[in-house]
Amino acid sequence: MDEQVPGHGVEPHADGLNSRLNWLRAGVLGANDGIVSTAGLVVGVAGATADRTTILLAGLAGLVAGALSMAGGEYVSVSTQLDTEKAALRKEERELATMPEAEERELADIYRDKGLSPELARQVAHELSEKDALRAHAEAELKIDPDDLTNPWTAAWVSLLSFSIGALLPLLAITLPPVGARVWACAAAVVLGLVVTGAVSARLGGARKRPAITRNVTVGCLAMAVTYGVGLAFGVTVG
Predict the structure, then answer these.
(1) Class of residue 180 by CB neighbours under 10 A (exposed 0-12, middle 13-18, buried 19+)
(2) pTM of this structure
(3) At what angle do helices 118-137 and 52-98 cross, to 10 degrees?
(4) What pLDDT was estimated at residue 22?
(5) Burial letters for 37-49: b for 16+ Cβ neighbours within 10 Å, e otherwise?
(6) CB of 85 closer than 8 Å to CB of 145
């Protein structure tokens, strides 16, 4: 069992960090979008009408459309990234088959640029190439783990579920309370939700919490204020 340096903790390393950041991006952005876009939609409708059914239907339509849009967008985006990774690996495989010595020298140059002495860089490149040349080049040159390529379906499902969960917060908060408290209840729920997602994203990403929370809350409040104003301008509000 590896010993840990006292007070040093367990730091994220490249082999797990990229995968974790992909999940973080899809999950947290999906939840944030669900909260902010749905809150803006239902608050805007609430500014125009006090009819609970109208607000609920608008919110549900926004939830379904937004979740599908997020999932589809993530699938297309990550599929493009996956195609790029596969193409880069195929190219590297062809180069290793046709010019192995040149590729080994290239790998040695990469490690020399990282600070190794020329002799040690050549030794590392040779030993890694003997063991698994494609993996060595993929990780050092392409920054790709051949066994952990991006998964578009995972990103799509994470986005769909996280958006839906986030969207439920403002939807329930504005339809359950009485008329006079709807907008304020929704605003309070949205602020709380954005504080949580901001704190979670900062913690998992190793960043400071306050800037992340401030950004989330500011964007959410601005979206609600603008759409509520539009609703007031084009409709009749009660309470």
Answers:
(1) exposed
(2) 0.75
(3) 120
(4) 63
(5) bbbbbbbbbbbbb
(6) no
